[in-house]
């Protein structure tokens, strides 16, 4: 990275301002910035971390606390985003190649320690660090997203802790030789589901004595294939097919049985949809089952259909929704919504539109009622009626809207 940053003005009347890079670790008396100052600046301004460039699913991180004690030592900084995704950051000034290996070993140890924690363990640490009581972690993140659903957030954080699924960032000043080899070594020697990136932070000071930070991603591990989808009960990670099988909970077994029953008897009227290969995940053990919209962005998941079981609200249903930040697909979804009255005439008078707890839009069907039938033997009248209801409504929704969406996607290339 260049030692200089050049600020230009388009009016061509102002002289260019050439900013020299500040040395890190020398302190103000030497015209530089201390490691502690860099730590404070980045923790206070998390947008200075190029998270979206590394893995967009970690966008919107909120600073939680610093110096988080683990069995292996202290994590410099911990962040969490509204989807319950966890980011660990280590700040280091690189003195020699050995120091690089050491700090990478440190952050891997911290990640392994964190992967043994429960949500309650993390919550206790945050409470002690902040001096606040209650569900402090949730409340801190909720400030940036008032519509955040507490149960979904807790479930997502718990899942990511259990899987060891974190974003690990090492921020330094002079990371240079051999970084790709280091990242390759990390990928070969770990079983956690993390992503790791090495970031060089360049700092400059302008004529008004304001600091300018230019972060640069030097190397990162390959991102595991995964999809994060906004479900009725919060964001859901479709499992990595290579993940070791684990013992399913009672609810997961009930979910799996119900979704298998729905899939076994469904045949979409839209012939372009191959029924068996359209569902994610497979096997389905979460509270939500998904159907991909082919040809949409984000690997076919910018627009998608979902079918859900919500035990806490005693509600089930299915819907079409759109992922945030996908301009073309958002326009298509809004166009579909604008014809809602006509859709009700075509698909069914019980068609609805609503926003989920994260304020994401849905068009589809819901059915309120006691979901205790899920715990039965699968032969009860309520169980069979609910399976039929779900098959019928999901088929109506997908088979009617999928062809329309394909035409609109083609028109909006």
Overview of this structure, please?
With 413 residues, the chain is α+β, with helices and mostly antiparallel strands. It has two domains: 4-220, no CATH class; 228-239 and 248-411, no CATH class. Helices cover 36% and strands 25% of the residues. It has helices at residues 35-44, 51-54, 97-114, 119-130, 136-142, 150-163, 179-188, 250-264, 275-278, 297-300, 327-338, 340-347, 381-411, and strands spanning 4-7, 17-20, 62-70, 73-80, 86-91, 166-172, 195-205, 211-220, 228-231, 234-237, 279-280, 288-292, 303-310, 315-322, 352-355, 361-368. The strands form four sheets. Strands 3-4-5-6-7-8 form a six-stranded mixed β-sheet, with helices on both faces. A hairpin with a 5-residue loop joins strand 15 (352-355) and strand 16. The longest helix is centred in the last third of the chain and has 31 residues, at 381-411. It is globular, with a radius of gyration of 25 Å.
């Amino acid at each position: 990275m260049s030692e200089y940053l050049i600020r230009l003005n388009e009016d061509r009347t102002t002289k260019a301002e050439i900013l020299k890079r500040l040395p890190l670790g020398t302190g103000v008396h030497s015209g530089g910035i201390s490691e502690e100052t860099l730590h404070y600046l980045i923790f206070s301004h998390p947008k200075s971390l190029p998270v979206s460039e590394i893995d967009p699913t970690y966008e919107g991180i909120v600073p939680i606390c610093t110096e988080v004690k683990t069995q292996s030592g202290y994590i410099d900084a911990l962040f969490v985003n509204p989807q319950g995704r966890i980011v660990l950051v280590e700040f280091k000034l690189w003195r020699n190649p050995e120091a690089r290996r050491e700090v990478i070993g440190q952050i891997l140890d911290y990640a392994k320690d964190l992967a043994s924690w429960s949500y309650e363990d993390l919550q206790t640490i945050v409470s002690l660090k902040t001096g606040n009581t209650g569900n402090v972690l949730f409340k801190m993140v909720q400030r940036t997203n008032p519509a955040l659903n507490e149960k979904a957030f807790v479930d997502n954080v718990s899942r990511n802790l259990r899987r060891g699924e974190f974003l690990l960032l090492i921020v330094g000043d002079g990371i240079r030789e051999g970084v790709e080899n280091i990242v390759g070594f990390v990928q070969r020697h770990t079983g956690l589901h993390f992503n790791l990136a090495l970031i060089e932070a360049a700092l400059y000071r302008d004529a008004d004595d304001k600091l300018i930070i230019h972060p640069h991603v030097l190397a990162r591990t390959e991102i595991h294939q995964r999809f994060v989808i906004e479900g009725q009960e919060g964001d859901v990670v479709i499992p990595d097919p290579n993940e070791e099988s684990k013992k399913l909970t009672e609810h997961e077994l009930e979910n799996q049985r119900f979704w298998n029953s729905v899939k076994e008897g469904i045949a979409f009227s839209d012939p372009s949809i191959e029924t068996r290969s359209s569902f994610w995940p497979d096997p389905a053990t979460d509270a939500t089952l998904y159907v991909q919209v082919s040809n949409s962005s984000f690997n076919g998941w910018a627009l998608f259909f979902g079918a859900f079981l919500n035990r806490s609200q005693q509600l089930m249903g299915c819907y079409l929704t759109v992922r945030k930040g996908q301009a073309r697909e958002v326009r298509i979804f809004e166009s579909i919504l604008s014809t809602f009255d006509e859709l009700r005439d075509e698909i069914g008078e019980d068609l609805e539109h609503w926003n989920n707890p994260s304020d994401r839009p849905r068009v589809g069907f819901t059915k309120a009622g006691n979901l205790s039938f899920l715990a039965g033997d699968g032969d009860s009248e309520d169980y069979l009626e609910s399976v039929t209801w779900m098959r019928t409504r999901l088929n109506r929704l997908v088979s009617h809207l999928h062809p329309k969406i394909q035409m609109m996607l083609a028109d909006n290339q």
